[in-house]
Amino acid sequence: MAYGRTRTALITGATDGVGGVVARALGMDGWRVLVHGRDRARGEAVVREIEQGGGSGTFLAADLASLAEVRRLAESVRATTDRLDLLINNAGIGTAGNAPGRKTSADGHELRFAVNYLAGFLLTRLLLPLLKASAPARIVNVSSAGQQAIDFSDVMLTRQYSGVAAYCQSKLAQILFTIDLAQELEGSGVIANALHPSTYMNTTMVRQAGVSPMSRVEDGAEAILQLAVSPALAGRSGLYFNVQRETRANAQAYDAEARRKLRALSLELTGLAS
Prior knowledge:
This protein is of the alpha/beta class.
Protein backbone atom coordinates (compact mmCIF):
# COMPACT_ATOMS: atom_id res chain seq x y z
CA MET A 1 0.00 0.00 0.00
CA ALA A 2 1.14 3.56 -0.62
CA TYR A 3 1.62 5.50 2.58
CA GLY A 4 2.73 8.88 1.22
CA ARG A 5 -0.85 10.10 0.79
CA THR A 6 -4.24 9.73 2.43
CA ARG A 7 -5.48 6.25 1.67
CA THR A 8 -9.16 5.74 0.86
CA ALA A 9 -11.19 2.64 1.62
CA LEU A 10 -14.76 1.64 0.81
CA ILE A 11 -16.31 -0.88 3.19
CA THR A 12 -19.75 -2.30 2.44
CA GLY A 13 -21.89 -3.23 5.40
CA ALA A 14 -19.90 -0.91 7.65
CA THR A 15 -22.69 0.39 9.89
CA ASP A 16 -22.77 -2.68 12.14
CA GLY A 17 -20.76 -5.68 13.28
CA VAL A 18 -17.32 -6.48 11.93
CA GLY A 19 -17.58 -3.89 9.13
CA GLY A 20 -18.02 -1.11 11.65
CA VAL A 21 -15.01 -2.29 13.67
CA VAL A 22 -12.84 -2.36 10.53
CA ALA A 23 -14.07 1.09 9.48
CA ARG A 24 -13.18 2.60 12.87
CA ALA A 25 -9.77 0.90 12.90
CA LEU A 26 -8.85 2.21 9.46
CA GLY A 27 -10.09 5.68 10.42
CA MET A 28 -7.88 5.68 13.51
CA ASP A 29 -4.96 4.69 11.25
CA GLY A 30 -5.47 7.82 9.15
CA TRP A 31 -7.55 6.41 6.33
CA ARG A 32 -10.41 8.18 4.62
CA VAL A 33 -13.25 5.68 5.04
CA LEU A 34 -16.30 5.48 2.80
CA VAL A 35 -18.88 3.85 5.07
CA HIS A 36 -21.62 1.98 3.21
CA GLY A 37 -24.91 0.85 4.70
CA ARG A 38 -28.66 1.12 4.40
CA ASP A 39 -29.34 2.97 7.65
CA ARG A 40 -28.27 6.62 7.45
CA ALA A 41 -28.47 7.26 11.20
CA ARG A 42 -26.20 4.32 11.99
CA GLY A 43 -23.87 5.17 9.12
CA GLU A 44 -23.47 8.77 10.21
CA ALA A 45 -22.83 7.59 13.77
CA VAL A 46 -19.91 5.46 12.50
CA VAL A 47 -18.60 8.44 10.54
CA ARG A 48 -18.72 10.59 13.69
CA GLU A 49 -16.75 7.97 15.60
CA ILE A 50 -14.15 7.85 12.84
CA GLU A 51 -13.83 11.63 12.84
CA GLN A 52 -13.63 11.77 16.64
CA GLY A 53 -10.73 9.31 16.37
CA GLY A 54 -8.87 11.64 14.03
CA GLY A 55 -9.84 10.06 10.73
CA SER A 56 -12.21 11.17 8.01
CA GLY A 57 -15.34 9.41 6.84
CA THR A 58 -18.26 9.69 4.46
CA PHE A 59 -21.49 7.74 4.58
CA LEU A 60 -22.85 6.32 1.32
CA ALA A 61 -26.32 4.77 1.40
CA ALA A 62 -27.37 1.89 -0.84
CA ASP A 63 -29.50 -1.23 -0.65
CA LEU A 64 -27.40 -3.99 -2.21
CA ALA A 65 -30.52 -6.02 -2.93
CA SER A 66 -30.93 -3.73 -5.96
CA LEU A 67 -28.40 -3.72 -8.80
CA ALA A 68 -29.53 -0.20 -9.70
CA GLU A 69 -28.54 0.93 -6.21
CA VAL A 70 -25.20 -0.87 -6.55
CA ARG A 71 -24.60 1.17 -9.69
CA ARG A 72 -25.56 4.36 -7.85
CA LEU A 73 -23.18 3.44 -5.05
CA ALA A 74 -20.33 3.10 -7.54
CA GLU A 75 -21.26 6.48 -9.01
CA SER A 76 -21.28 8.01 -5.51
CA VAL A 77 -17.82 6.59 -4.83
CA ARG A 78 -16.46 8.06 -8.05
CA ALA A 79 -18.08 11.41 -7.23
CA THR A 80 -16.62 11.37 -3.73
CA THR A 81 -13.02 10.36 -4.40
CA ASP A 82 -10.54 10.18 -7.26
CA ARG A 83 -8.63 7.35 -5.55
CA LEU A 84 -9.59 4.01 -4.04
CA ASP A 85 -6.84 2.05 -2.32
CA LEU A 86 -9.01 -0.58 -0.71
CA LEU A 87 -12.40 -2.18 -1.37
CA ILE A 88 -13.81 -4.51 1.28
CA ASN A 89 -16.93 -6.38 0.15
CA ASN A 90 -18.30 -7.17 3.60
CA ALA A 91 -22.08 -6.68 3.42
CA GLY A 92 -24.14 -9.83 3.59
CA ILE A 93 -27.21 -11.73 4.71
CA GLY A 94 -26.84 -14.78 6.96
CA THR A 95 -28.53 -18.15 6.84
CA ALA A 96 -31.72 -16.87 8.49
CA GLY A 97 -32.08 -13.12 8.04
CA ASN A 98 -35.16 -11.25 9.22
CA ALA A 99 -37.59 -13.63 7.55
CA PRO A 100 -37.21 -17.33 6.73
CA GLY A 101 -37.99 -18.80 3.34
CA ARG A 102 -36.85 -18.04 -0.18
CA LYS A 103 -36.76 -14.31 -0.93
CA THR A 104 -35.82 -12.48 -4.09
CA SER A 105 -33.98 -9.24 -4.74
CA ALA A 106 -35.37 -6.19 -6.52
CA ASP A 107 -34.10 -7.78 -9.75
CA GLY A 108 -35.77 -11.14 -9.08
CA HIS A 109 -32.64 -13.05 -8.07
CA GLU A 110 -32.41 -15.28 -5.00
CA LEU A 111 -31.71 -12.80 -2.23
CA ARG A 112 -28.56 -14.24 -0.65
CA PHE A 113 -26.91 -14.81 -4.03
CA ALA A 114 -27.84 -11.24 -4.96
CA VAL A 115 -26.64 -9.49 -1.80
CA ASN A 116 -23.75 -11.69 -0.69
CA TYR A 117 -22.23 -12.22 -4.11
CA LEU A 118 -23.75 -10.47 -7.12
CA ALA A 119 -23.74 -6.97 -5.59
CA GLY A 120 -20.04 -7.26 -4.73
CA PHE A 121 -19.28 -8.65 -8.18
CA LEU A 122 -20.93 -5.66 -9.87
CA LEU A 123 -19.54 -3.08 -7.46
CA THR A 124 -16.01 -4.42 -7.86
CA ARG A 125 -16.18 -4.46 -11.64
CA LEU A 126 -17.53 -0.88 -11.74
CA LEU A 127 -14.76 0.33 -9.42
CA LEU A 128 -11.88 -1.57 -11.04
CA PRO A 129 -10.72 1.44 -13.11
CA LEU A 130 -10.45 3.51 -9.91
CA LEU A 131 -8.63 0.73 -8.07
CA LYS A 132 -6.20 0.22 -10.95
CA ALA A 133 -5.52 3.96 -11.11
CA SER A 134 -4.72 3.89 -7.38
CA ALA A 135 -2.40 0.87 -7.47
CA PRO A 136 -1.05 -0.66 -5.38
CA ALA A 137 -4.60 -1.37 -4.22
CA ARG A 138 -6.45 -4.26 -2.61
CA ILE A 139 -9.81 -6.01 -2.78
CA VAL A 140 -10.96 -8.09 0.20
CA ASN A 141 -14.00 -10.33 -0.14
CA VAL A 142 -15.44 -11.32 3.24
CA SER A 143 -16.65 -14.86 2.66
CA SER A 144 -17.22 -17.76 5.04
CA ALA A 145 -16.04 -21.25 5.94
CA GLY A 146 -19.64 -22.23 5.18
CA GLN A 147 -19.30 -23.15 1.51
CA GLN A 148 -21.40 -25.29 -0.83
CA ALA A 149 -20.68 -26.10 -4.47
CA ILE A 150 -22.82 -24.08 -6.86
CA ASP A 151 -25.45 -26.10 -8.72
CA PHE A 152 -25.37 -24.38 -12.09
CA SER A 153 -28.64 -26.10 -13.08
CA ASP A 154 -30.41 -24.30 -10.21
CA VAL A 155 -28.27 -21.39 -9.07
CA MET A 156 -31.30 -19.51 -7.73
CA LEU A 157 -32.48 -22.57 -5.75
CA THR A 158 -35.99 -22.53 -7.18
CA ARG A 159 -36.41 -26.32 -6.91
CA GLN A 160 -35.25 -26.94 -3.37
CA TYR A 161 -34.49 -24.01 -1.09
CA SER A 162 -32.82 -23.63 2.26
CA GLY A 163 -31.29 -20.52 3.78
CA VAL A 164 -28.16 -22.46 4.69
CA ALA A 165 -27.66 -23.74 1.15
CA ALA A 166 -28.29 -20.27 -0.29
CA TYR A 167 -25.82 -18.68 2.10
CA CYS A 168 -23.10 -21.30 1.59
CA GLN A 169 -23.46 -21.20 -2.20
CA SER A 170 -23.26 -17.39 -2.27
CA LYS A 171 -20.16 -17.41 -0.08
CA LEU A 172 -18.37 -19.91 -2.30
CA ALA A 173 -19.30 -17.76 -5.31
CA GLN A 174 -17.33 -14.93 -3.70
CA ILE A 175 -14.24 -17.13 -3.57
CA LEU A 176 -14.57 -18.29 -7.19
CA PHE A 177 -14.82 -14.62 -8.14
CA THR A 178 -11.76 -13.76 -6.05
CA ILE A 179 -9.57 -16.35 -7.76
CA ASP A 180 -10.88 -15.36 -11.19
CA LEU A 181 -10.26 -11.69 -10.45
CA ALA A 182 -6.74 -12.31 -9.17
CA GLN A 183 -5.80 -13.93 -12.46
CA GLU A 184 -7.36 -11.09 -14.45
CA LEU A 185 -5.55 -8.44 -12.40
CA GLU A 186 -2.12 -10.05 -12.48
CA GLY A 187 0.48 -7.35 -13.13
CA SER A 188 -1.97 -4.49 -12.48
CA GLY A 189 -0.85 -3.73 -8.91
CA VAL A 190 -4.31 -4.67 -7.59
CA ILE A 191 -4.63 -7.82 -5.49
CA ALA A 192 -7.79 -9.69 -4.48
CA ASN A 193 -8.12 -12.12 -1.59
CA ALA A 194 -10.98 -13.70 0.37
CA LEU A 195 -11.41 -14.93 3.91
CA HIS A 196 -13.59 -16.48 6.56
CA PRO A 197 -13.15 -13.79 9.25
CA SER A 198 -14.16 -15.81 12.33
CA THR A 199 -16.71 -18.42 13.34
CA TYR A 200 -20.05 -17.21 14.71
CA MET A 201 -18.98 -13.72 15.74
CA ASN A 202 -21.21 -11.74 18.10
CA THR A 203 -23.10 -10.07 15.24
CA THR A 204 -26.72 -9.38 14.36
CA MET A 205 -26.44 -11.97 11.57
CA VAL A 206 -25.42 -14.72 13.99
CA ARG A 207 -28.06 -13.77 16.55
CA GLN A 208 -30.78 -13.86 13.86
CA ALA A 209 -29.68 -17.39 13.02
CA GLY A 210 -30.30 -18.39 16.64
CA VAL A 211 -26.66 -19.36 17.18
CA SER A 212 -24.59 -18.66 20.28
CA PRO A 213 -21.55 -16.54 19.35
CA MET A 214 -18.16 -18.28 19.50
CA SER A 215 -15.88 -15.35 18.67
CA ARG A 216 -15.77 -11.56 18.76
CA VAL A 217 -16.15 -9.08 15.95
CA GLU A 218 -12.72 -7.79 16.95
CA ASP A 219 -11.25 -11.19 15.99
CA GLY A 220 -12.89 -11.00 12.59
CA ALA A 221 -11.76 -7.40 12.14
CA GLU A 222 -8.14 -8.38 12.79
CA ALA A 223 -8.37 -11.07 10.11
CA ILE A 224 -9.89 -8.66 7.59
CA LEU A 225 -7.30 -5.99 8.37
CA GLN A 226 -4.51 -8.50 7.75
CA LEU A 227 -5.66 -8.89 4.15
CA ALA A 228 -6.36 -5.18 3.86
CA VAL A 229 -3.08 -3.70 5.06
CA SER A 230 -0.45 -6.27 6.02
CA PRO A 231 2.81 -5.82 4.08
CA ALA A 232 3.11 -9.62 4.09
CA LEU A 233 0.26 -9.79 1.57
CA ALA A 234 1.81 -7.33 -0.88
CA GLY A 235 1.70 -8.83 -4.35
CA ARG A 236 -0.07 -12.01 -3.16
CA SER A 237 -3.46 -12.58 -4.74
CA GLY A 238 -6.20 -15.14 -5.27
CA LEU A 239 -5.84 -16.58 -1.78
CA TYR A 240 -8.37 -17.81 0.76
CA PHE A 241 -7.81 -17.45 4.50
CA ASN A 242 -9.54 -19.12 7.42
CA VAL A 243 -9.29 -16.24 9.93
CA GLN A 244 -5.55 -15.41 9.68
CA ARG A 245 -4.34 -18.71 8.23
CA GLU A 246 -4.01 -19.28 4.49
CA THR A 247 -5.86 -22.47 3.51
CA ARG A 248 -7.88 -24.13 0.76
CA ALA A 249 -11.50 -23.36 0.00
CA ASN A 250 -14.11 -25.79 -1.37
CA ALA A 251 -12.68 -27.68 -4.37
CA GLN A 252 -15.06 -25.95 -6.81
CA ALA A 253 -13.16 -22.69 -6.27
CA TYR A 254 -10.21 -24.19 -8.16
CA ASP A 255 -12.30 -25.51 -11.05
CA ALA A 256 -11.63 -23.25 -14.04
CA GLU A 257 -14.80 -24.36 -15.82
CA ALA A 258 -16.95 -23.57 -12.77
CA ARG A 259 -15.37 -20.12 -12.56
CA ARG A 260 -16.01 -19.57 -16.28
CA LYS A 261 -19.69 -20.51 -15.84
CA LEU A 262 -20.08 -18.21 -12.83
CA ARG A 263 -18.35 -15.34 -14.62
CA ALA A 264 -20.59 -15.68 -17.68
CA LEU A 265 -23.72 -15.90 -15.53
CA SER A 266 -22.68 -12.91 -13.41
CA LEU A 267 -21.91 -10.74 -16.42
CA GLU A 268 -25.31 -11.63 -17.88
CA LEU A 269 -27.26 -10.99 -14.67
CA THR A 270 -25.58 -7.63 -14.03
CA GLY A 271 -25.93 -6.44 -17.62
CA LEU A 272 -22.16 -6.22 -18.09
CA ALA A 273 -22.10 -8.89 -20.80
CA SER A 274 -23.58 -6.58 -23.43
